[in-house]
Design brief:
single chain, mainly alpha, Arc Repressor Mutant, subunit A, Tetracycline Repressor, domain 2, 79% helix, elongated
């Protein structure tokens, strides 16, 4: 019984931590959206979230992390899934599965608000570019393995850039369809599937060419 009680207390503490973290993120994004990222201070966020500035800094080391709270972990998961794919698994197939798993988070209200905040701030747009570069490097390494090539060669780099461009186009298409009677998660996966056909076909063609 004592072990069970301790486990329940630990579970409760973790839930409270997640709730506090989510409250800080939501409050920060709402303030950023209303008054601008640069104009919003950590003490203002803390007061609106009913926590101390130290609590905000404990959960988020930089103010930018409030806009990109899970981006590093998201790319960590992508890197792990690509590394774990079998010899018959392609980069495109793994990307599709990863995107399907991430889609609920990418479609959340927090994520939609974060995208709007990023688009309205030049500093955040530049900050986001760091994650794009990391994503391109991860995908380029994986595509290079598909091609038995070096990640710095032109073909993996081009294929990686084209793959990352899909997600930018996907956001544009989804935004144009907001308000229409479509199921966005299913619609997003359908759009991604169509785009990945081209990327995967190109990778396969390059791989077959290299083998001849």
């Amino acid at each position: 019984m004592a072990v069970q009680a301790e486990t329940e207390r630990e579970g409760l503490r973790e839930r409270k931590k997640r709730q506090t973290r989510d409250t800080i993120i939501r409050t920060a994004l709402e303030l950023f959206d209303r008054q601008g990222f640069a104009a919003t201070t950590i003490p203002e966020i803390a007061e609106a979230a009913n926590v101390s500035p130290r609590t905000v800094s404990t959960y988020f080391q930089a103010k930018e992390d409030l806009v990109f709270p899970d981006s590093s972990q998201m790319f960590d998961r992508l890197e792990a899934e690509l590394a774990a794919r079998g010899p018959d698994g392609t980069t495109a197939d793994t990307l599709r599965r990863w995107f399907a798993d991430e889609l609920p988070r990418l479609e959340s209200d927090h994520a939609a608000l974060a995208r709007r905040v990023i688009q309205s701030d030049e500093h955040l747009t530049g900050y986001f570019a760091r994650y794009r570069v990391r994503g391109e490097e991860i995908i380029a390494r994986s595509i290079a393995e598909d091609l038995s090539a070096d990640p710095d060669e032109l073909e993996p780099r081009l294929a990686s850039a084209a793959t990352l461009a899909i997600f930018g186009v996907l956001d544009t298409v989804k935004e144009s369809k907001r308000g229409c009677e479509v199921h966005l998660p299913a619609d997003a996966l359908e759009l991604l599937d169509r785009a990945l056909i081209f990327v995967d076909a190109g990778i396969r063609a390059l791989r077959d060419t290299a083998r001849t």
